[in-house]
Fold this protein.
Amino acid sequence: MNEQTPHTPSRRKVLRTTAAAAAAGTGIGIGALGGPNAQAAVAAPATSPESATAATPSATARRRLGPTMAGVPFPGRSTVRVALVGLGNRGNGLIGLYLALPWVRVVAVCDPVREKAERAAAKVVAAGQAAPALYTNGEEDYENLCTRSDVDFVHVATPWDSHYAIARAAMLGGKHVGVECPVAMTLDELWDLVDLSEQTRRHCMQLENCCYGRNEMRVLRMAHAGKFGRLLHGAGAYNHDLRALMFSPTYYEGPWRRLWHTRLRGDLYPNHGFGPVANYMDINRGDRAVSISSFGTPALGLAEYREENMPAGDPSWKETYIGSDRTISLVQTAQGRVIRLEHDVSTPHPYSRVNSLGGTRGVFEDYPARIYLEPDHKDDQWADFSAYAGEFDHWLWKDHANPPGGHGGMDYIMVYRLMQCMRLGLPPDFDVYDAATWTAPVPLSHASIKAKGAPQEIPDFTRGEWRKARSGVDSVKPA
């Protein structure tokens, strides 16, 4: 399951079972990825991204099929029972974060590569827990895992094309589910996850969202305290040189990630940048993202890298890359604010998520972190952001000053807080509406680039609930 090229049968099975939901709106679709040997050849979907126009009917709110999930608490429990689906680079690295929490039990693991599942199970046993059940019988064995009665939460860390199907199976099986980004790849899939969350009363959440970084949480609290005045603009990005990894024969299980650059022209990974800025601006909690306009450069970087590094006869030579080397998107909010998103994984540059916020009283910019606020600063010179740590660091970072795990500890903070909410019966800090909003730029940026930058409507996945203020990542410490 994890990091293998998804194959067509799984996709067809999902589409057959969701035809009724898809009929509610003709969304921007993508073709199923081919089998493990597939390269540039792609089965043409009913609605191809290459034929997409500026019209996006699925942006229109669909009829609600169940009560809102905004602010709905988890049922409290003394122990949270977790299953992990996908045990490659990302999934295998997450197990230790769950095992570090004494009230969490890892009860099942799933990956079609049995060695990966066994490696994960060994970690669970070494931590003093009972051996988890293994699900390794092909790429759809997650369906059997999702029928278990002793699983509360499913963590999905698989290739992107399988995210929707596994999240769907988890909710239909009565489980809350968290999905690595992006949570799905089309507007219809995003709407279907929203509908399923409301119908099943199970939360579906976007994980690896970069909202729990120390800087991000400090800026969030400062924004809510009014330090930036009235908010005007923000920016976020995923600028990360992945060329060597995407062409590596061992890092990913197959070429699935590189193949997305043969299918979509837009922002393939908006969540890291969009999530934190959406929190600063209370998107879905008083404001909402209403439209996106995207522009993309030519796709040159991957082909150049291939020419310089890949031998003649390598399967990658059959691929034609269309994904823009750099995508720049402008998101407009209902309150008139502007969010800039960037995506670039195909050219050489240092890592950056940009992470910027500006208002009527000043601005913060990250990479490196620096700040300028009135009346604190008056010399037009960047100031030391660490000076605000004592007053504005989030309680999670005060309680966990040196967290383990990837992304500078933010992964642990996210897992800790999510499991804490499940254990104590609190609403999650982020929900299916956030997942859908943060992921919508994937299909919509592609459509906008195809339409020469024409704005694309971002759906109101909350169906009007965004107008109501409610809590989010800037949470109050439980008693």
Residues 410-424 form the longest helix (15 residues).
